[in-house]
Structure formats: structure tokens, C-alpha cells
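Subject: complex prediction, re-run

Hi both,

The earlier run crashed halfway through, so I resubmitted it with identical inputs.
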Amino acid sequence: AQSVTQLDSQVPVFEEAPVELRCNYSSSVSVYLFWYVQYPNQGLQLLLKYLSGSTLVKGINGFEAEFNKSQTSFHLRKPSVHISDTAEYFCAVSYNSGGYQKVTFGTGTKLQVIP
Amino acid sequence: DGGITQSPKYLFRKEGQNVTLSCEQNLNHDAMYWYRQDPGQGLRLIYYSQIVNDFQKGDIAEGYSVSREKKESFPLTVTSAQKNPTAFYLCASSHRVGEQFFGPGTRLTVL
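This time it finished cleanly. Structure:
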């Protein structure tokens, strides 16, 4: 079975400081990797995705993530956070199972940007 | 504009009642999904459908039912058999490789 671990449930960081949100996954098959952001009482929006190719992927709002196959990680980074980045972030893996494309989400990390 | 709509945004249910949550998409996506979100538990898959007239149970299907009569629509019914239905419900659709597009969600509260 595929699983996603987001070890940090909450991450406080000062405005304009860098941040890294960690994501590790476990899978016996090839996967695609995603980061989503959720603002309060809203649906999820795609931040970025890794399908193949370059292991460093850039997304919206200045975020980027690096796929590390040997460490089965896909950590999300931003060099300088803004107050508007305060939200919950979800890592997800997509894989094919029995002809169906399935997705497993992590439990989320709440990023709190402190003024 | 293409997207996914969910209605209503807020829904209140008395114990013992069935309620139906609406999900419509105009993205021409084949696959649609229903998730339940509770604080600290991330998203849990209730049902999913890859094509019209076909759907599969997810991880927490008990107490829920769905239908997929049209490509654009995937309504979710929360039945009286669901013991703890108070939660935030999210609908999503997908065209390929698992990238999902989400609706704004419905918050269901049992009175």
C-alpha cells in the first residue's frame, strides 16, 4: 500500500524567513507527487507536481519542491514567506492500482506565518 | 470558466435524516471523487468514479451512497447509517495522472 507522511502538523515561521515542509512517501510502484494548499473553509488548490524529468519543480506563489527518489521525499520549500502563505499544505501521491488512478494524501501541515 | 461547484456550502441535518450533497463539473473530466475532511486527519476517500455508471468504494464508504448518471455530476448521499457525519466534504475531478481539481466544499453539521 502507498502512504504519505507529513511529520510536522504545524510549522510557525516569521515573515520573510525561509520554510521547508517535509513529505515522505512509501510506495512499491511508480508514483506521481503533488503539493496542494488549502485556505480556511475552501477546497484544495494545486501548488506543484512532479510527473517525470527534472527533480526540482517550481510551482505557484514562489514555492518549489525537490523529488528525492533514494530518500523517498518530496519536501516543499519557499525562500521567503509572506503572511498570505498562512494555510494548510497537503502532500499527495498518485499511483495506478488495478487500472484505477488512486491518490493518497498526507495529514497536512499548517503553516503559520508570524508578522 | 471551467471548474467544480458544490452545493450547498453549509448544510444542517437532523439525526436520522438522509441528505444529498451536490457536485458538478464542467471540466470534461472522466474521474470524480468524494473526500471527507476532519481536523488533523487529512482527506479520506469516500467514493470515486472513473466513468459514467461506474463507481468504487473508498476507504470510508459505510453510511454513504453515490450515483454517476452523467459525466458532469457525482452527488453524494449521507444516510442515517453514517454515525458521525459532521465534517467538511470535498468533491474533486481528474483528467489524468492523478492531478485533482477540487470544489469549494460543503460543511455538514448534524443537529
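The mean pLDDT of chain B is 92.

- K.
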